């Protein structure tokens, strides 16, 4: 009764360490409260479904899934695989528009190289060359507008003939925007050659 506590506690710690190595008696207490049935079921469901246990893990999985999806989209843009294309490029209408534009020669696709040449000419401090560069600007812009209007009418007519019931909203503007890109830089990559009928 009047013994020192330190002497008394030392043997009990050894006993508990020895007990932990022995198998537990089924009738002995667990040392923790039994979880509620709803908690246990939700924990089992979460473990079996593979759902993340915390927000950090969920964000990591989401980033990984997004990275995989973007890789598939990039490959689809290069190969033309319809399954993984972005929503703006999917569908038979958009495919036809791409093929229709890619099979034709358009002045608008040479706008950027011509603009660089005209800007270089306009920097030169000779009055005649600057006048020529202004005239070239005007000619290029007028030709692009005329070519785009003609292409828009022809494309709308072809779309109405081939896809009378399909939604065609934004298809003509999609094609006109594609003409502004140089053929080699277009995404999805052109699937038809020039002059080939889509």
The largest β sheet comes out as: none
- Average residue pLDDT: 84
Instruction: Spell the H/E element sequence.
Output: HHHHHHH
The helix/strand class is mainly alpha
- Total helices: the number is 7
Choose one word for the global shape. elongated
Tell me the Rg in angstroms: 36 Å
**Assembly state:** single chain
Please tally the β strands and state the result: 0
Strand content: under 5%
Task: Identify low-pLDDT runs.
Answer: none
Q: What is the percent of helical residues?
A: 55-70%
Distance between the termini: 102 Å
Could you describe the 3D structure shown?
Helix content is 63%, strand content 0%. By secondary structure, it is mostly helical. The mean pLDDT is 84.
Task: Give the secondary structure arrangement, pairings included.
Blueprint: H1 5-21, H2 37-49, H3 55-79, H4 92-102, H5 111-123, H6 127-162, H7 171-179
């Amino acid at each position: 009764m009047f013994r020192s506590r330190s002497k008394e506690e030392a043997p009990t710690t050894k006993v508990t360490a020895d007990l932990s190595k022995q198998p537990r008696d089924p009738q002995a207490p667990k040392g923790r409260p039994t979880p509620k049935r709803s908690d246990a079921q939700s924990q089992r469901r979460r473990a079996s479904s593979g759902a993340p246990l915390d927000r950090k893990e969920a964000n990591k999985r989401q980033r990984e899934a997004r990275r995989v999806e973007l890789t598939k989209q990039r490959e689809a843009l290069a190969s033309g695989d319809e399954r993984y294309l972005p929503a703006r490029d999917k569908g038979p209408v958009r495919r036809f528009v791409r093929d229709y534009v890619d099979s034709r020669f358009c002045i608008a696709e040479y706008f950027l190289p011509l603009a660089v040449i005209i800007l270089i000419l306009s920097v030169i401090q000779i009055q005649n060359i600057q006048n020529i560069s202004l005239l070239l600007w005007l000619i290029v812009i007028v030709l692009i507008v005329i070519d785009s209007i003609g292409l828009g009418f022809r494309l709308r007519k072809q779309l109405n003939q081939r896809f009378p019931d399909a939604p065609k909203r934004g298809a003509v503007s999609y094609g006109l925007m594609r003409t502004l890109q140089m053929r080699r830089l277009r995404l999805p990559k052109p699937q038809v050659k020039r002059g080939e009928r889509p």
